[in-house]
Fold:
Amino acid sequence: MQDKIYKIKGKVQHYAWGGYDFIPHLLSIHNAEHKPYAEYWLGAHALHTSEIILDDGSCISLYDFIQANPEFTLSNKVFSVFGELPFLLKVLDVREMLSIQVHPTKANALKGFENEENAGIPINAPHRNYRDKNHKPEVMVALSDEFWLLHGFKSLNAIEATLANTTELSILLPLFKKQGLKALYQFVMEMEQADVNAMLHTLVRKELHKKATGQLTKFDAGWWVAKLFENSDELKNIDRGIFSIYFFNIVCLKKGEGIFQQAGVPHAYLEGQNVELMANSDNVLRAGLTPKHIDVAELLKHTIIEPIIPEVLLGKPITLHSPESEYRCPVSDFALNKIQWQGTKQYETVAATPEIILAVEGGFIIQDNTGKNKVIKQGEACFITPNTEYKINSSGSVQLFKAFVPVL
Structure:
């Protein structure tokens, strides 16, 4: 295997919150069983690795290939620093809102992983928090016309106004004024379930009525609360994650806009499709809005409980008139660029580190410096080994996302 560029096939995750059409359409799959297609993974995560597609149509594990050829596939520098492909590229289709979640720092992930290993918790146990030793900062770019998410805490003034103007939550206002945001959030997250039900039951009913009568927009917390419950026959054991919807920033990204989420920033995806790039990890601490394992105490230990102003990333051309734009992130594990144009064009560049390129719109022909070609259709992807000069040729409308390691 002396090729420098390989076609790869990712792994689909059929989580219940996923949509039914977007990812199957992207991958040219007929979803006859009407299964939810939530995520499409491209990378070398040990539990869900992509596969290299050889010229004869057979496949081998990208994870195994990298393990067997680390310096060729990663470069000496990337291998010495990370010991693996340090990023994971995904496509998400969010039909139902995801869990309120936080990702740990690298040091805390290592500590948590070792503690759970020493406790004898199986790596795939449902109640396991740390499935690997890595942190999980992530950047995402909207593929849909709108992508909605929760991202960090609102300003103190906005939270105070929410408490004051929401009758069912106004009982929390004295606590917030006297002891602050951290005490408020810890109180509602640790509240007994019976008290959660008592506080939120009437509020949920009210928001359901408001949404049904057109009194709410997606910028209102109540719109998302109502969406969560509008198909429920009864209100029992109301999810405490609802408090976060009222306390967090509600962000709407337009197509092509992105956002970076660092360790400790609480967030939740609400609706839409995106491409997402993260450190090679599956460590998620959850606090609500999910049937998966919830560990409030562990989440609170790692959450940045302070207001933040969401910073929307617009994508900046790497050079004047370049078809390649970058979404800058303050991490060394990964970088995400978009390559986009209309019409017939050839684009030449060099992969200094390992790259994965995914075609989300249109297709292209990629040629390495030996003259060997690979045809990549919409929904397909390729893995490029380090120090490879390559050319991309395409006509029509093309939109590609490139994941790579910043030059260390």
Notes: DSSP finds twelve helices and 24 strands in the chain.
